[in-house]
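Researcher: Structure prediction, please.
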Amino acid sequence: MGRNITSILIAFIAGLAIVGFLTMLIKNPGSLLISILLMIGVAFVIFIIMRAVLNRVGPNSGGNSTEMKKYRKAVKQSKQKYNTQPKKINKRNQQTKRNPKRKRKNVPYLKVIDGKKTSNKENDQAN
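Model: Predicted structure follows.
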């Protein structure tokens, strides 16, 4: 019920806006153009002010703060650990190593689990 009332209210307000726009367009198009340009200008000024406030360069927003230094140090360590930078491949090395054999890794975290050494044939067969 509340949703139906809300949608009717929004449609009514939108209808009034369209009627007002058309009335202003017919009676005074110059004033309509000035109003539209004024709204665009105000929106642009608000956008610039908000962008300046949000991207403000202050003592805690970046630059040389201790948190930023710690972050940069962590990024550097992560890059060194995971080698995220692409390595340059020389053409000579690429030609000599066309089909390199992959080495099998010795996986230390796998463990052999001993199962039943004797099996009962009755358990193996399906009934």
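Model: Residues 93 and 99 are 12 Å apart (CA to CA).
Researcher: Thanks, that helps.
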